[in-house]
Design goal:
Elements: E1 4-12, H1 16-21, E2 27-36, E3 46-49, H2 58-69, E4 73-78
Length: 91
């Protein structure tokens, strides 16, 4: 399954307080996403696949494949990779 790489501007807050009270002071970062489009000549509904605390896994790709086969555009967001985060379970 091939998709289009998409860069998504984001930020790295130090903590929740900074994210809410000083978002402009957060370090900018670009996170990755991948857009998958089925063949179509019309506008398509899009489903965003966003991972939980363990990041993008094979199960997310499997969900994307299923949705793509059903005619949906699918965007899989990887907010962890560019931040060098493997898991937030321990946080």
């Amino acid at each position: 399954m091939e998709g289009l790489n998409v860069d998504v501007p984001s930020a790295n807050p130090l903590n929740y307080h900074q994210a809410v009270n000083d978002p402009g002071g957060c370090e900018p970062v670009v996170v990755d996403g991948k857009l998958f489009l089925p063949p179509a000549d019309r506008p398509l509904p899009l489903v965003m696949v966003v991972p939980g605390s363990l990041g993008v896994g094979d199960n997310h790709v499997g969900h994307a494949e299923t949705l793509l086969a059903a005619g949906y555009a699918v965007f899989v967001l990887d907010p962890f990779g560019p931040r060098s985060v493997e898991s937030t379970v321990a946080n």
